[in-house]
Amino acid sequence: MKAFNYFQPTELRFGSGRVGEAGEAVARYGKRCLLVTTPTDVVMEPLFTRIKRILAGSGVECLHFDGVVPNPTTECITQGATLAKEFGAEVVLGVGGGSSMDSAKAIAVEASHAGTAWDYLWFSDTQPSEATLPIVAVTTTSGTGSQFTQVAVLTNPLEKNKSAIYNNVVYPRVAIVDPKLMLTLPAHVTASTGFDVFCHAFESYLHVNSSPFTNMMALEAIRLVAANLPTVVDDGSNLPAREAMAWADCLAGLCIAAAGVTLPHGIGMTIGGYCPHVMHGEALAVTYPEFTRYTYPYAVKQFATMGRIFDLELNHTSDEEAAARSCGALDRFLQRIGMWLSFEGLRVSRDELVVIADHSRVLPDYKNNPRVATRDEIYEILENSYQR
Predict the structure, then answer these.
(1) What percent of the residues of the chain are helix, what percent strand, and what percent coil, each to the nearest 5?
(2) What CATH number is attached to the domain comprising 295?
(3) Could you give the number of structural domains in the chain?
(4) Which DSSP letter does residue 299 get?
(5) Buried b (16+ CB within 10 A) or exposed e, 119-135
(6) Rounded distance, CA 101 to CA 172, Å?
(7) 343-363 pLDDT, tens per residue?
(8) What average pLDDT score do residues 14-42 get?
(9) Domain boundary among 181, 202, 235
(10) Same structural domain for residues 194 and 174?
(11) Alpha-carbon distances of 265 from 24, 142, 161, rounded to whole Å
């Protein structure tokens, strides 16, 4: 058996109604909390008010920063960190999807270190220390897995660059996953974040650092997504299906924290840097049909296994045939959940595709793919995804 390591310091509190424990979880790490969220609106205001009440009930004083933007920027991180320092925050609570949780992590770094969060990216000589403020995460989507990872993704608009802090000090101390918080998530956000769950699981399964442990979790996550994502896209109020997707998100997050992601995420991060209006799940879905056809001959067993989850008829075929037909099975799944996308439809120009191709190998994710892509091969994937 392949030798492997596995490390996961985050305490998981999973189940409907568990958000009520947020105050007690936060109070273990400090009595002055910066609450980090997207802007307060009619949909989210009741939850944010409830969270503040829960914190107060545990004796936690709270300052609310609700300036998180999609593909969180260095500017919004600095705004949050400035508030955290002025308030004397002792702990940071991220409530929301990946943008809120990643922002909470980056703010926790910037509020406790010199310079900005951008100075502490994964490749920097200077890395965040144990002085980083403790982080608690409450997720309201089933998508990013950020509640379990040592990654905080942020975008520098001036550089048109999307990169990440990657350090064990930004693992959340506690992750509260309450599927009831996801019942009102819109269908397209459900589909986009849900497809991200599949990508995390499948790419960790393909990854050179995969292990028997991560493979076990990844395959279960893929099964849960295949069985439940169409249901929650059609009926977001279906609590059992929401619970299944929330558990799939947890499993996939645990996978990428230990293994990692591959070529589509490297491309997707670059798309997000140059085209911040494109959701992360959209950036993945738009290239996946071409990615699968590019990669499957180099990972026949993994693609065959994935294909058989989405199409039971492939159980009666050879691995080679199942792997080839898995691409079509995943195409049909994308169509079923409303994620059959094109760059043209996402308002990304062909000129932007050239720049994206030029920069998609800045992050090392492409090196972990079973087939390592050249710049020109990435451009071909992008160009073939322009119209559908």
Answers:
(1) 55, 10, 35
(2) 1.20.1090.10
(3) 2
(4) -
(5) bbbeeeeebbeeebbbb
(6) 9
(7) 999 999 999 999 999 999 999
(8) 97
(9) 181
(10) no
(11) 35, 17, 14
Query: Which residue's entry shows tokens 């793919």?
Result: 369
Please give the pLDDT value at position 1. 87
Judge whether 60 lies within some domain: yes
Q: Is the pLDDT of residue 27 over 90?
A: yes
CA–CA dist 235, 388 (Å, integer) = 27
CA–CA separation, 173 vs 13, rounded Å? 11
Both 237 and 334 in a single domain? yes
Residues 90 and 237 placed together within one structural domain of the fold: no
How far is it, in rounded angstroms, from Cα 201 to Cα 199? 5
Please provide the DSSP assignment of 61-126 as one string: EEEEE----SS-BHHHHHHHHHHHHHHT-SEEEEEESHHHHHHHHHHHHHTTSSS-GGGG-TT-SS
Please, which residues have CB within 8 angstroms of residue 226's CB and are 6 or more apart in sequence? Answer: 198, 309, 310, 333
Rounded to whole angstroms, the Cα distance separating 73 from 55 reads 27
Largest CA distance in the chain: 63
Judge if 261 and 120 occupy the same domain: no
The model's pTM is 0.95
Q: Are 83 and 232 in a shared domain?
A: no
- Chain position carrying tokens 């409907």: 16
**Is there a domain that residue 2 lies in?**
no
Q: How many CA atoms lie within 13 A of 174 on its CB side?
A: 21
Give 43-101 pLDDT, tens digit per residue: 899 999 999 999 999 999 999 999 999 889 999 999 999 999 999 999 999 999 999 99
Q: 373 is in which domain, residue-wise? A: 186-384
Contact of 289 with 385, CB cutoff 8 Å = yes
Examine the domain organization and report whether 63 and 175 are in the same domain: yes
pLDDT attached to residue 160? 87
Q: Residues with Cβ < 8 Å from 293, sequence gap 6 or more?
A: 327
Last-in-domain residue among 163, 181, 199: 181
Does residue 374 sit within a domain? Answer: yes
